[in-house]
Amino acid sequence: xxxLSVIIPSYKDPYLNKTIExxxxxxxxxxxxxxxxxxxxxxxxxxxxxxKYIHSKEKVGMREAINRAVKESTGKYIMKLDSHCKISxxxxxxxxxxIEDDWISVPSRYSLNVNKWKKFNGPIDHxxxxxxxxxxxxxxxxxxxxxxxxxxxxxxxxxxxxxxQGSCWFMHKSFFEKIGGLDxxxxxxxxxxxxxxxxxxxxxxxxKVVRNRNVWYAHYSPPTRKRRSLRKSMLNNMKKAFRxxxxxxxxxxxxxxxxxxxxxxxxxxxxxNWYDDLYISYLKMKGYL
Length: 289
Description:
Blueprint: E1 4-10, H1 16-26, E2 31-38, E3 51-56, H2 62-72, E4 77-81, E5 85-87, H3 91-97, E6 103-113, E7 118-120, E8 127-130, E9 142-145, H4 147-152, E10 158-160, E11 168-172, H5 173-178, H6 184-187, H7 193-204, E12 208-219, H8 228-246, H9 257-264, H10 277-285
Parallel strand pairs: 1-2, 1-4, 2-3, 6-12
Antiparallel strand pairs: 4-11, 5-12, 6-7, 6-11, 8-9, 10-12
C-alpha cells in the first residue's frame, strides 16, 4: 500500500496532542505525520517512527509551513489537517481508494466539540461563492452554504465541489507540485489557501475538486479574534484572488472562470452581467479589481 504524509501546521494549539493521537489511531495503512511548529515550542511529548517535527524559530505562516512540510514528506499522497481535528476510522485507505492523479479530495466536514471530542453540525458538503453585495464592505468572494446543491447531490458519495474550507484536503504529492504548491509570491504567508488550490485545479489543469463522503472529519473553530495584521493579510488576499478569478488571470489558466460558475451555478445574488467586459471595466475603474 502507498504511503500517506499527513501535514499538520501548528501554533501553540492545545489540541495538537489529541489530534495526533487520533490520526495515529484512526489510520489503517502506512502513514507519517509531519508537524510543523510555526514559531513556537513543542507542546507535545508524543514520539514515534511515524511522527516528525519541523521547528521554525520564526513564525512563517500557514502557506510556507505547508510548502516546507510537503518538501520533507516521503509519501505518495499528502493530506493537510488542522491541529484541532478528528477524522473517521480508516480515513487514509478510503481516501486513497477514491482519488485520481489530478484531483483534490476533501472529506465531509463537521464541527468538533473539543470537550467531548465528538462531531456535530454537519455535514457541510457544498458551498457556493457569494458575490459581494457592497464592495465598500466586501472586497472578494466568500463561501456560503449551498443547500440546494447539497440536496441535489445527497446520494453521491464522490461529488464535484467548487471549493472548500481549508482545514483538511488530500491529493497526490505530485499534483501539489504540479500546481506549484501554495504561492507565497502572490498571497504571502496566510489566507486563501483553499481558494487558491481550488481555482488552480479547476482553471489551470484538467483536474477537479471533489468531496469524498465515505470519509468525514470534524474541525474546531477557536473563538478568538485574529490579529489586525493577520486580518489585513486575509483581506488583501481576498482582493487578489477576486481579481485573478474575475479577470481570468490565474497563471497558466486553460478554463475560464465563467465556465466554472456555469458548471456549479446559478448562485444566489449574482448580477446577470458579471462577466461582461463593461462590468469588469467598471469594477477596475472603481478600484475593486
